[in-house]
Amino acid sequence: MMMVSNLSLSLLLLLPLAGSAFELSLHLTTKGAEELDSTFWAIATPSSDRYAKFLEVEELAAMIGSDQSCIDAASAFLKQSGGENLVVSPLKDSITATFLHGHSLLLSDAGHPKSTPDCVKFTVRKDHYHEGVYPRPRASASASAPYTISKIKNAYGMPTDLTAINPATSVMTWGPGTFGYSVAELEHLKLTQAPKINLDKVVFDNENHGEPGGDNFGEGQLDVNMLSAFALNATVIVSNTNTSSSTEESTGFGAALLDFLTELAGRETVPHVLSMSLGSLSAASCDLLCDAAIEEGYSQKDCDDYLAKQRQVCMFLTQDQTDKISMALQVLGTRGVTVLAASGDGGSHFSFQAFESDGGIGDVLNEASCANSIPVFPTASPYVLSIGGEMWRNGNSDHPITWSYLGSSGSGGGFSIQFDQPEHQKDVVAEYLKKDGMPPADSYNAGSRAYPDMAAVGVSGTSQSCPISAGMFAMIIDQRLNAGLPGLGFVAPRLYEVATKFPGEAFQDIVGGDSSTTCDTGFPATDGWDANTGFGRPIWDGWAKHFGEDN
Fold first, then answer.
1. Distance between CA 293 and CA 307 in Å, rounded?
2. Under CATH, what is the fold of the domain 149-546?
3. Active-site positions?
4. 64 annotated to a ligand binding site
5. What is the pTM of this model?
6. Within 10 A of 296 (CB to CB), how many other CB atoms are there?
7. Residues 500-525: pLDDT tens digits?
8. CA distances from 138 to 143, 216, 221, 231, 252 (A)
9. For 160-199, what is each residue's pLDDT tens digit?
10. Which sequence ranges are marked TM in the entry (predicted)?
11. Does 528 belong to an annotated binding site?
12. Is 109 annotated for ligand binding?
């Protein structure tokens, strides 16, 4: 008899019984992890003879796709459970089926879970419904004075009217739940700040267009506004692949993200740039916090229940899931996608800000958060470019410092708990940690992935910094395409090489501020790379020279 793994069972139990049609995707065990890793780094390393030689879907399917025996077993299981219209993903790493009205998937009539093949690692369900009341967005969707579009571009030396020429240049943003944007608000930005925005080049890639008033709708608006304004005339693709309400604030988000990334990697055409502003504390961070709560006498359930009520705090199910998501990001890099992720708005200790002081578990979690570097995800993955936030002292763009808001929120930065430090980071991180003002050495793992890698204006949070940077990279890629060059793919090794060999040419250093927020310690923004603003903010001419050309 086939058994249900604990991880798969946990995911299945999260799925509600539905009274309407829905889809279910079974994510399968893959192979070739070592070959993928070596190929990924060869493609991303400028000195390699495989640099920027991106892979096609068929090559990746042969490398990492699941064994045929697993595909057969999963297909048979779906059919036996009443699934219809089975589709095997192009990468052969998942199978999706449709279930019609009245079916209860993977649960017996008595309510007991049925078995799934052992090779099924994750299960993601798509229900097209909304429920509950959504909070208002936390950030304005438009830049405000003195941070207008033109002033930000001027600060970075980017021509305000620079437009994409190549019809293939594309940048994508993604989010689930209510994620979308208002055409009217984008038109307002065009009229007031960025007249060259091409409204016709902003497109959805499916029928899900978001829901005004939802929390993720505000995120989507900010992403679209910044991408459209900083990647003028490039195609801006807006993607919402799962409108289930469970994806808005809870662990349904992690499942939706995994499903999206694996599906995107299998598309015949992928975007040149993917901007990801949404995220939460990593699964490893939530494990650390709950371990601290358990030491103080709380149960695992107490901690899980409390964190589940917090806004976008713990939206990933397990470290196994975040590991799988990180691998999916690695696959996208081999396809040639440059993936950027916001570094978070809670400094090095929170998702956004401290938990409410309640004389109970909230205080325990605050104490544990301040005592450790608490990373967010997916920005702490070693396969994305992490983008921190800057602001201008007294509104003067000549004096950048790390972004913070009323002392309670600020640019995210620190060290991963789960992922090792990639080779291209080791020298600059070691130099940084020799400096004064670091948090206690036992509060972080100095050998883990450090972030962010760079910064941009984040007065509306790093959800603004990320799409600004993504839009600028799209314009660099447009330059490359026009010169007959490929895109950049995973750009971090090249970025670190440029920043260290040519200091001050491609990035303006940011000194001032730290990631402490409401805690006593944080990572300071210092000379050179730091775990608060990375190498600093863009210098357009240096980007055009060092990233727009291959010498």
1. 11
2. Rossmann fold (3.40.50)
3. 219, 223, 463
4. no
5. 0.91
6. 14
7. 999 999 999 999 999 999 999 999 99
8. 14, 10, 12, 24, 20
9. 999 999 999 999 999 999 999 999 999 999 999 999 999 9
10. none
11. yes
12. no
